[in-house]
Design a protein that fits this description.
mainly alpha, rod-shaped, single chain
């Protein structure tokens, strides 16, 4: 039983998958932030253009 616990405690095979998941989540948050800001800026630009055309 102690061998099993020791082997389980030293097993790091799932750590890489968790790290990749955290990196992917961080990239997704950054992309969402950029697209939200870009969308807001584009809305303002198109509103200004539409106002000037009227």
């Amino acid at each position: 039983m102690t061998k099993f616990v020791t082997r389980f405690a030293n097993d790091e095979s799932g750590a890489t998958a968790i790290e990749y998941g955290l990196i992917a989540a961080g990239i997704a948050v950054a992309i969402i932030g950029v697209l939200t800001t870009l969308g807001t800026n584009l809305t303002g630009t198109f509103t200004s253009v539409a106002t000037e055309m009227v």
